[in-house]
Amino acid sequence: MSRHLSELRIVFIYFIFASGWILFSDFVLEFFIKDMNTLASWQTYKGLFFITITSTILFFLIKTHTSKLYKVQKELEGTKQRLELVIQGANLGYWDWNYETNSQIVNDTWLSFLGLQRDDIANSIIDWSARIHPDDIAITTNAIAQTIEDFIPYVIEFRMLHKDGHWVWIEGSGAVVSVDAKSGKPLRLAGTHKDISNRKKAEEKISFLALNDPLTKLPNRFYLKDKLESLIHSQKDIKFAFLFLDLDYFKNVNDLYGHSEGDKVIQEVAERFKNSMNTSDFIARAGGDEFVILKQNIDTIEEECKKLIQVLEKPFIIKGLEIHLGISIGISLFPKDGTNFEELFKNSDIAMYVAKENGKNRYEMYQTKMTDSIVESVKLDNEIQKAIENDEFVVYFQPQINLNSKKVIGAEALVRWKKPNSRLVFPDAFIKKSEENRTIIKIGIIVFKKSLEQLLRWKSNNLFEGILAINISAVQLEEDDFAITIENICKEMDIQPTDIELEVTESYIMKNPQKSIKTLRNLKNLGFNISIDDFGTGYSSLSYLKQLPVDKLKIDRSFIKDLADNNEDRAISKTIISLAKNLELEVLAEGVETEVQRKFLEDNLCDSVQGYLFSVPLDSEAFYAYLKSL
Ligand code: C2E
Ligand code: MG
Ligand code: MG
Asked: Is 414 in the pocket of ligand 1 (CB under 6 A)?
């Protein structure tokens, strides 16, 4: 409307002026001039005058109008140039589609996204749409249809075919830019394209990493949870098995060969498992050396587990060496052992833990009773750690008596755990666990130091001349720096290693005799005495016994207990005593409780004894008093 306003105004002004002039000039002329001829020539002059005036007015009116138009046109061109610069700067492709003729215009950037030259593309929208990914056609046609209907611009993401055959991700926007004034139908649509392939790749990588493990490319725990939940909701009466797999001895691989070799092993394990899967199985890496497999065929679950164990039987090659690994598997069943991810995970983990406890490289089905024992075990783990921090381990001492001289020739240090409620916990309740979680290394040092403190006290008061026997666990002996550590403690406390006897069990020696001979020789060379504890229970080979740098055999309490009426035990005790004599070793009998036992051992020339008959293990103050009373 406003466009026609200025034209109307010109015409209106002209109309008023012309009408006024004609009426007014004719009236004035006719008033003053009465002669017809003169009037006619004056009217000619008046007409010429009118044309001159109106031409001049028209000239100025048109001039003002066209200069206005020119100015607007210049401004438009400036805006257009700026817009093109913005489009170029933003690396935007531009398209303009004539809706009536179905022809289209695109800019060079638009072409460059698809690797096209101008001649490669027809001037038709059909060419354009033929390049859209089949899966994205619905998105684009819907967006355009919606925009045409409600005139609201759209922004969508879709793929278009590059000239070399790969798909390019495009962010496309579009709007109706021209409309038929009468029908209200769109005449033109225009919009921009942006190549977002890099952003899409980054997004895909992020979403892959969010659900998959980068090392094995297997689904991770989150993916597993999703999968499990959708499996649960897939069918009404679905049953499946949740297998929790944990590699045996994998820590050794990392410790001995480093983490990058460890990673390779994990990759190979994943590959072997993947290759042994059934089509309906789902495998995920749950963490470090842990995998989870969901199996829908639960009737054959035990055979499937045996197969998985077999899969790892072939050795792994690390740096040219053959390494054997195993796998412990815990199984929980849906819905029997758990109705959600957390329960199934927890219970199969418990069953796996039991599989480890029962000897590793095997599988166990979850049973409710397993939970209690695991809870206890985990509790104990934590409690031992806390007990170390709170200094709750104390040492008791039991005297060792020579049967000949009747004198105290030694004392055995025995650890006790004094809980804050002053309840005394005996070693049988925590030594095994502390060996498993290796806290025995710290506990061993505590016992060693506390025992040596007492030895110093006894010696400085001239109460003791014997040897202090300290129990040493296999876990401690396997530590490379064990010998140096205890040697340093002796030095710091100014105690000779010859005043100390290290009690090692027969089972430790027989586990790896060659290695223990070396370890014990090293300790012997430092001056420590060595005795074999619980002798008779560990099937020592006599040939090794000869090579061991041992000073003493301690006959296990189990042979002493029934000496009075068990001929076999009597025979064994006698044999051990004569064996010790033949090998020129001392021999001590443990657990002597009765006079009959003492008499038998004395008659058979056992050197010394230890047991309740003489004294129960005593705390440091009681033992000090005991020594004083002698
Ligand atoms: P062990 O070294 O064979 O210790 C002898 C065990 O027999 C001690 O049990 C002692 O209290 C008990 N005993 C001694 N005389 C008699 C007796 O006449 N009758 C009966 N029934 N028992 C007797 P304890 O103190 O409960 O220790 C059990 C085991 O725990 C020890 O057997 C030893 O293998 C281990 N142990 C104790 N202290 C330590 C330690 O500081 N470090 C390590 N690694 N092991 C320890
Ligand atoms: Mg002992
Ligand atoms: Mg013993």
From this structure: yes
Strands 529-535 and 500-505: parallel
3-state SS string for 104-121 = EEECHHHHHHCCCCHHHC
Q: pLDDT digits over 16-34, tens only?
A: 888 888 888 888 888 888 8
Q: Which atom of ligand 1 is nearest to the CA of 592?
A: 18
Residue labelled with tokens 């466009």: 3
Can you state the angle between helices 221-234 and 341-357, rounded to 10 degrees? Answer: 120
- Complete domains list, the chain, with CATH: 2-86 (no CATH), 90-202 (3.30.450.20), 217-366 (3.30.70.270), 382-629 (3.20.20.450)
* 247: its two tokens: 């590699």
Task: Report the 3 state secondary structure along 42-106.
Answer: HHHHHHHHHHHHHHHHHHHHHHHHHHHHHHHHHHHHHHHHHHHHHHHHCCCEEEEEECCCCEEEE
Best residue for ligand 1 mutational test, from 452, 475, 486, 557 (most atoms within 8 Å of Cβ) = 557
Whether 561 is in the pocket of ligand 1, judged by its Cβ within 6 Å, is no
The token pair that represents 238 in the structure block? 């679905």
Q: What span, in angstroms and rounded, lies between the C-alpha atoms of 55 and 223? A: 86
pLDDT of residue 460: 97
Spatial separation of the C-alpha atoms in residues 134 and 141, rounded to whole Å = 11
The pLDDT tens digits of the residues spanning 356-392 come to: 988 899 999 999 999 888 888 888 999 999 999 999 9
Task: Note the pTM of the prediction, 2 decimals.
Answer: 0.58
User: Could you give the CA distance from residue 530 to residue 381 in angstroms, rounded to a whole number?
Assistant: 30
CA 581 – CA 608 distance, rounded (Å) = 13
Supply angle C-alpha 521, 526, 528, rounded to 5.
80
Cis peptide before 335 (omega within 30 of 0): yes
User: Residue 269 has which token pair?
Assistant: 């394990």
CB–CB of 376/467 below 8 Å?
Answer: no
Residue spans of the chain under pLDDT 70: 1-6, 539-541
**What burial class does residue 32 get, using C-beta atoms within 10 Å of its C-beta: 0-12 exposed, 13-18 middle, 19+ buried?**
exposed
470-479: buried (b, 16+ CB within 10 Å) or exposed (e) per residue? bbbbbbbbbe
Counted residue by residue, the chain has a size of 630
Q: Which residues contact 366 (CB under 8 A, 6 or more apart)?
A: 330, 331, 332, 333, 337, 347, 348, 350, 351
Query: Ramachandran region of residue 3, left (φ > 0), alpha (ψ -120 to 50) or beta?
Result: alpha
pLDDT, position 1: 45
Nearest to 410 by CA among 585, 557, 531: 531
Based on DSSP, count helices (H) and strands (E) in the chain, helices before strands: 23, 22
**Whole-angstrom distance between the N-terminal and C-terminal Cα of the chain?**
127
pLDDT in tens, 43-95: 888 888 888 988 888 888 889 888 988 999 999 898 888 887 887 788 899 99
- CB-based contact 596:629 (threshold 8 Å): no
Both tokens assigned to 393: 């381990």
Ligand (nearest to CA of 610) = 1
Look at strands 186-195 and 93-98 and give their pairing.
antiparallel
Burial class (CB in 10 A: 0-12, 13-18, 19+), 55: exposed
Residues 6+ apart with CB under 8 A from 160: 113, 114, 131, 132, 133, 167, 168, 170
Supply the residue whose CA is at minimum distance from atom 34 of ligand 1: 471
What spacing in Å lies between the alpha carbon of 589 and ligand 1's midpoint? 13
Distance CA 209, CA 115 (A): 31
According to the model, what pLDDT value does residue 274 have?
96
